[in-house]
Queue: 2 jobs
Job 1
Amino acid sequence: MTIDLKTIKHISKLSRISVDDEKAKKLAGDLNSIFEFIKKLNELKTDNVEPLTSVAETTLKLRPDEVKSKNIREQILKNSPEENEDFFVVPRVIE
Amino acid sequence: MSEVTTLSLTDLVQNIKEKKLSSLEVTKGFIDRSEKSKILNTYITEDFSSALEKAKSFDNKPNFDLKLPGIPIAVKDLFCTNGVKTTAGSKILNNFIPTYESTVTKNIWNEGAILLGKLNCDEFAMGSSNETSFFGNVQNPIDKNLVPGGSSGGSAAAIAGNLTPITIGTDTGGSIRQPASFTGTVGLKPTYGSCSRYGIVAFASSLDQAGPISKNVKDCALLQEIISTYDAKDSTSIEFKRKSYSKELTNNIKGKKIGIPKEYRVDGMPKEIEELWTKGIEYVKNCGAQIVDISLPHTNYALPAYYIVAPAEASSNLARYDGVKYGFRSKGENLIDMYEKTRSEGFGSEVQRRIMIGTYVLSSGYYDAYYLKAQKVRKLIKNDFDYAYKKVDAILTPSTPSSAFKIGEKTNDPVSMYLNDIFTVPVNLAGLPAISIPAGLDAKGYPLGLQIIGKAFDEQNILNIAYAMEEKIAFKNKITDWWIK
């Protein structure tokens, strides 16, 4: 299997990273060599193996559903690139 | 003044407690040396003037009951520090000033430590040479042409260069142990769930762990007992009986069974590393431990599995950098265009590559073939260790397949860069603790490390083995202070 430029463009769209043709070519080369390396896993038969999703063998704890951080609106907005009247500002989405 | 910087953390603490040194003298010493060491590029952000203020106020009202009384400490720039810029080595966070503190850094400040500054690292901890940092590469104090390793390269270089008495890094696939090995320092990757991930910029959440990098094993044990706490703010933080590692540290390892996995004898491994390993085996034998040959049959599959699991988690974690709530924003014609340009201009090429790999392996039609497959292989790797630990108490291996390489040597070939982590990655996949200690120099005079891998939550045991070996090895780093004019 090789990853072609069309696939790179598709992944870049899913990743929300704009990619021009030159960068796409470089990425295709890199990804193909990485997936060539990853292919080694196919040597292993894993049909009856349970996937390991977490090494922390604990059940998630329940906690009371209560507000702990109060009045931190200012803190939350502090690092935003653009804000207005306590809202994050983004480019216009409704015409 | 500069000799304070050569003292170990343990010695500094004792000197301060006995009032032979003040916090201000110590803090000034490290700042002074850091100022003379700018060429190493270890710091991303310096917090020196505020450190001096904190040192003065400690000296005015000292509390000698604390474990880190007035000790200045620089930390990897992956830990959120309240009011101090936290970049994760990325352009996308170049203007980010956290309004909260990570749990592990909070733990060290609560014991009296003082923030010196934030140390350079690979962008989002993705790299093995510190060369992916937006803020430039770090020079290894061993030799100016060498990388310090990565991703905690700035942290390891700062310890080797005596710019901070101790530091904390993070380790997702070897990012504490590999740079420790490349700089002749000690680095511990704790058991997954031991140190809280709250407030650490996330890379791969099922693998990330914070841990100490230090000058010696005792310092490492002391910091580990401080940073390892249960934390409700991290849902994977684990409650277990944490020990006073530094108090219980002993070099008595008589009767311990140490496993030697045959799969770590990889093709093309330099003879010097083979010999170092053999020497390491002799050392533990001389300490009264017993050597047991073991097999970890799936070792060779760890790295390919890692390069599915880690990018998959990264692609999900890094989705939050969209130019809206914090960080860098690029101008776009519309919302989508803004997202795409922000992420294209804000992330460096290695981070983009990993996001793309992760997005691909999680995308419709490929999930089972890649991600699910990798998680199954991860289970096989963990089973290997579980089986081995029925027969042994710990495992001894080399830390890295080579000594530090030259700056620029591996930047054009991602796979050859990834192969650096061949001995460290299996530990993260299995969630185990492991420590790298300096064990010798190669023919060029570059340090080489040995790794001791433990059972989950058995940090005390690997610290003890490392402590016993450290005494026998009596490692001396060859650092000439070439960068100080």
Job 2
Amino acid sequence: MKLLSRISEARSAKNVTIKKFKTMSELNSNMNKKYWGSIHELRDATYTEKYEDGDLEYLKEVREVISKEKTGRRDFLKMLGFSVGAATVAAACKRPIRKSIPYQTTQDGLVPGIPNYYASAYTANGDFNSVKVKCREGRPILLEGLSSGYSRGDVHLRALGSLINLYDHARIKSPKIDGKDISWEKLDTSVIANLKKADSDGKEVVLLTGTEISPSVSKAYKVLQEAYPNIEHIQYDPISYSGILDAHKEMFGKRSIREIYFDRADLIVSVGADFLGSWISPTRFSTEYVSRRKVSKENTNMNRHIQVESVPSLAGSNADLRIPLMPSEEHLALVQIYNHIAEKLGEETVHVSFDDSRIASVAEELLACQGNSVLISGSNDKDAQILVILINTMLGNYGNTISNFVTYNLKQGDDNALNDMFLRMANGEISGIIIDDSNPFYNLGDDFEKAFSNLNFSISLSSRFNETSRRCTYIAPDNHWLESWGDAMPTTNYLASCQPCIAPLFDTRQRLESVLRWSGQSLSAYDFIRKVWFSEYFQQQSTYSTTGSFWDSTIHDGGVELKNLDSEVKTVKTSNINSVQRLAETSTSKMEVRFYEKPQIGDGHYCDNPWMQELADPITRISWDNYIVANPKWVEENNLLDNFKARTYQRVMLKTNKGTVTLPIVALPGTPYGSFGICFGYGRKHTLHSDYERGASIYHLTNREGNSMKFTDEVNEVKWVEDGYKVAIIQQHHGLTHKTLGSDDESMFVTEQTRQVVKETTLAEYKEDPWSGNTIAGQRRDKWLKHHLTSLYGETAWDDDKPFEYYYGGAHAKKQGDGHHWGLAIDLNACTGCGACVVACHAENNVPIVGQEEVHRGHEMNWVRIDKYHTGDEDNPDVVFQLMMCQHCDNAPCENVCPVAATNHSSEGLNQMTYNRCIGTRYCANNCPYKVRRFNWFDYQGADSFSDREGFWGLDNDFDGARSHEGGQLGMHDPLRRMVLNPDVTIRSRGVIEKCSLCVQRIQLAKLEAKIEKRGLDDETIRTACQTACGADAIVFGDTNNQQSEVFKKWSDERAFGVIEEIHTLPSVQYLTKVRNKTKKSQT
Amino acid sequence: MTNQIQNKTLVTRFMQRPKQLFLLVSLFISVAFVHSAIAQEEEFDASNMPSGEVDLDSAAALDNSGSLTLDSSAVESEETAEAAPSGEEALWNQGKVLFQGKCASCHHPLRDGTGPALSGVRQRWIDEGDFKDKSGEEWLYEWIRNNKSVLDAGHPYANNLYKEWGEANMNLFAGLKDDEIDALLYYVDNSSQFAPAAAVTEVSAGDGEVGGIGKEFLSKYLLFIGVGLLLLVLILARVQAVLKRIELQKTGQPIPPYVPIWKSKRIYAVLVPLLLFVGAKALMESAIGVGRQQAYQPDQPISYSHALHAGQLNIECQYCHSGASKSKHSNIPSADVCMNCHMQVNANSEDGGRSEIAKIYASVGWDPNAIGGGSYIAYPESMEAGDLDSMYRTYLSQDYSEEELMDEAIQATLTEDVEAVIAMYNSPIPWVRIHNLPDHVYFNHAQHVTAGNVECQSCHGPIQEMEVVYQWSPLSMGWCINCHRNSEIDQNNPYYEQHYHNLSDEATVEDIGGTECQKCHY
């Protein structure tokens, strides 16, 4: 502060004119396209400086605290004396006796220090993900993609997050009756007595579960129902798919959704379905979708994706064409598409007054792509989904892009049955309820709470404390899925296996076994699953000829394809098209709200998961909260814009027909004027930490008219409540597009340069010229490089015949045969921005979670982040996601400024960070043009021995774990939580800089294995943690000194570029230009 | 006069006063002597284990370094090699190497182990092994290569042996050639012929000690000289002062007031910076040493002797520490690994090891009194405390005669031993960790043992001599780096052929980046 004030004084004294910042348009005049992060940046180019000031506001706080502690010379001497004395005493103390305890008996297949991998499958509330579990000394520490599995190597965010739920004090640790611990025998006796009594009283018992995709558990439920015929099994999805299922039931006779093959579709039209973020099976969809977006010179057969939606979603952000509409207009668009196509194909049409030329052209494109397109809709309205089925039928997509045989099991909830249950519960027909891991108190709200009071008994099978399990009389705690045997069928033709990777940590029993005990069966889960598999699924597969090999191989591989037993349904039941007429009614409302699902928090099940909370939403880049997104212009007109300098937002109360919700309002470019969006999953209660309870639940606002949950509603009023609400938004942290670049003679802040950080082109241009879009300073990149390198190193630094070999061999000083040079290639076209890599990095590298307060201060610790840039029209911008981590520059600006050489370069091209040498000057972070270095402000993980001293300076940090909370501590200070840490990566103490190491522990291990096995290191043996989570293969790691390697090929591609390489940092991370399929009818 | 002096530099001032110069120089020399004496003592502390310095630098060459190497087998082979071994000796050596690599974990030439004592095995097979159309000797060769086929063939002698030895399966050694088996059998029959002279190791260890004592003596001597010189300086200074006063008195000049030495500013000007320097250096060095624990030798729950197992019995390090060749950790073996041998091998009373071995039995839940030499307890967790007590008391009493058992003192010792044994019952053995690296250091055993071909002793010292293991190396970063700088890499590996084309033949670990931060710190 002093420095700054002195500078400003100097300026005013000398009356120096400060060079004015250029406006955005001026800045962009020499660039192809404008890129901007937030609405503030678009409006005001000087925002960066102001934002930096915002940082200083926080420092002022710190200074105030420190200035209260007056430290004079005598104090200094006292402290010096004390610390020397303390050190002497500490050194003179007896060294602690450390034990080294071996296993009592040698564990088969387990060598301490070597990880074991097991194929398994994550299932929870209708989520499914086939994964490879990495275990060290019997502890699961990471989930990696299983490329042979159903999810095609992709790892879902929530699957990754579920790992830390294993080591969690929110888990229920023993069976309970009325909140008191009890033995399993006594619990079983009481439960059986209750069930028998209900049976003899002739009262019903409801078994209320989320969608159950495990065939064995479903079978066990049937066994239970056989034992007690009065039990009715009702499934519900907190975020309902009931309308879609009902539509399929009506049209095809079977209540399940047909499998969609995105890799076969040349044209994908999604009306409000976020199929890359949250809709049905986003992991599988992402991999299939991206497989058609990796263009190369040889293969330009890229799909085209049109997203018609109101609130920007992950899928919408990846779309080639995004058409923003008001939430209520999504149905109208479907009707218009239907009409347009039906008219052309001579089918019956619906009367509709809505006419949008953009939608008409979408319909035209669909018509031009009959049989190779797919239309999906996120609506839960049965009639809208009937329209979708009719359109796809007219286009002939069934049998090609949509299966005629295979259906999803992932969503089976039935809202009709649920409503019926409420009625019967209110009438007293139901005496008891058994609930699995789902949380009806939270996501069914008042309806359920009222009905619940009429029950005689309630049994919870939950594994965690939540709103519901806390209210249940009996708790039979379930195992975590990593502790259980299990199986799952995401679709009707795939059987996935799930094996335990750790023995149960607590006195819990897996749900399947509890249900079997209550049915009077004594089989273990393992035996029961084998029985079910051998009796029902062995015949359905043709891969294995004996039950033994069937079981062993399926467990080993993680799953097996089944023959499909369903017969093909070709003819769609002709439906009375008039029933969909009501969809054609236009809304008169000027303000509407859309309720949506975030990929990481989902329906709220993961609201008390620190990894999921800390991961910023890919669209708004806000963590630890939910909010109302709104159109920026609308927000400005109503004076509700945030104060970006202080990072505070205004809170508003939004009133719909069903009720109100009070949340901060966030201007999100791309949201239509007058429409709002709120996500599910927040506002949970009874969690272990108040940060988990931030935000507000919106389940009470969801409209359940017509027996099915609706995701849109009218907004009656938006009322200002308060200002100054802190939101942990990281969109404007660590900006690198334009920066103040040091000083000249005139002033401290000089030439603001706009840097072109992302590059993009269109498919048409790319076909004409593979170099299109890849320019630096107006020159084609290779031409620029030639000029750049020859001017620096002389004529020998460039060879036109092998330009890239020379570039990376010459300028990077090493060539093939000179050891390794590690590098990354990131395909901007393949990255959907989901964020799984970020979480995988957290898990692999023990990256700390810092909590809402610290993220708000700009102290988030992510080693890899996904930057989001907007370009084009403010109301409907194109979005680019860019993975940003340490670029491992061969000419690294950070290395030159470290006073203690704590960061330096390795002979293998890595920018090394040595934590124990770091004294925390943060010069490197300031000098890093990519803003990827993170300073460890607190002892987040208990690396320092005296953890209690945190908070000493009044900077209370909730997540340092020093403070104890109900049920235990949250941070990595807690021994239970620490079990998730990767033992190969050190825990950083406070006060050091940390950053991406390119997973050096994996590199070292792979090199060692090669040396031990006396072989060369094959390409793609080493996979970084982020790479293992990415089923889309957007990230490729390898040795760039090996010219046969995949990464070298990508580096030599015409699309390759380094971020701001004009400043000669020589980054070891290269990106591939984004290609948008912008030209219509471009299918080849 | 005073002005003149003030105008001159310090040096010329001293040049004019040679006595003062002499004093100052001698003071410096004496301090330097004292300091170097201290420093040498420290150095000695850091390497007071015999042969330390040599081994540090010649890690890979340990086998050949002869005189200072303490591996007894290596010493033997060295000696025999020097003496240009006769044919018999060569055969014996070959046999010994084979025996130790393949057989020693279960067999001993003279004592029964997991398998029978092998001395005279050829004769036994010749005498009793004829079966079908093959001679006993032929059967023996087949037995060694593939004992399963011999058993399957129904060979009566082999099957009897198999039953006699608890149907324990023997490994197959299909790759052994006839001449190798000849060598093996020669060795087992003549195992004591060229027996290792235990004295050799002791002598070599003694050599180290002598060197150490010499150094210690020298450093004390230097300290003595230093202190002496310092005293001399003080005396001379006093003498000079007195002389000067006398001179002044004689010439009738005014005598300056007497300033005692502890009030002399001149002395302070020299001493204070000196003390600060010495103090800072000492502080820094002791600060660096915090957390290091060379020579740390804690008590262990079982008085396990590496000198016996690794030294005398010559069991391969990696038979027990099997992780070292493939993993980051060189794991401490689980007690069931001990049981591979100790199922058969019981201590006798002379060894005094019965109560120690009983701890292993307790740990794995083994009843040593059961018929047939002991058996695992079927339900170890459901044993009553009283039964346990009597079980292990019976076993431990075997060391004493009935009369001895009447003695109260012996009874008390016995009770103590039994309690110590039962404390281990059905639980892993809580060994005390000796080698501790800080958390920010990544060390991988496989990297050094397998990829780098480094002998265990290079870092762990003469482990085969240690009754109780202690930390032999400083395990400091400087120590690591030194070795990385000096150790040549074994380039006979396709890995280097593929990725490093331009390495010199003498390339060291440092040349492939082995001293970079992120090779060990991440």
